[in-house]
Amino acid sequence: MTTTLAVAGKGGVGKSTLAALLVHLLSSKKKLLLAVDADPNTNLDEKLGVKADTSVGAIREDLSKTMDSLPAGISKPEFITLRIQQAITEGDGFDLLVMGRQEGPGCYCYVNNLLRTILDNIARKYAFVVIDNEAGMEHLSRRTTRNVDVMFILSDPTRTGIMTAVRIKKLAEEMKLGVGKFVLVVNRSGGLPGSLGELASGGGFASLEPIPEDEALCQISEKGLSVADLPPSSPFRKAVERMVSSYT
Prior knowledge:
The protein is an alpha/beta fold and 248 residues long. It has ten helices and eight strands.
C-alpha cells in the first residue's frame, strides 16, 4: 500500500525544502520512495542533491509529435511507460520524477489520459510518494487519480500567508483531490499568536505544525549542499522528523 504525501503553498515559503527533507527522512526507512516535482519552477532535484535531465512535460511535447510513428512491435502505453521510466532519476534511497511545464497549445487529451494511467501504475510500486506541488495543484488534478493521505500546506507567519493556505485547502477540496488530512505548516515560527491562530483554526486544518527559524538552512544553501546535510541539531530537521513520526 502506498502512502502519498503532498506539499503545497505559495512560492518562497520553503515548500521545496520541506518536500526534500520529507524525502530524505522517509528514505531512511529503507522502503521504495518516489519524489515527484510537480512545480514548473523545478528545483527539487537541487534540494535533493541530484540532477534531473528531463521531465514528463518534455516527454508529453515529444509524444504529441511522434505518437503516430512509434517503433514497430511496441504499443503506445508500453512506449510511454518506457519513456517515463527513463525519465526517473535515481537518488540515494529514492527515485525522482519531474513533471515539468504544463502543455502548450494543441490537443493533448489522449496523451494526458495515457500519462495519468501510467503514472498511477508506476506510483503503486512505491511505499511512499512525496509530491512537491505548485500552488494551483494542476498536476495533482490532471496527472493522477491517486488520493493524497496527507497534504502539508506551508505558510509563513503572516495574515496573507495563512489566508493563502486556507484558499489552497479550499481549492483542493473543490478539485476533489481526495485528501485524507490537511496539515497547516507554519515556517519560521514558534507558533501563531492571537488573531493569526484564530484565522488558522477557522480554516479547518486537522492540525498545525510550527517550524522554527533555522540558520542552518541558509548555511547549507550558501555552500550548495542538500537538506541531507542538515545537522541532527537543526530545528527545521527536528520539526520535520516530528511530522514524519506523526503522519506516516
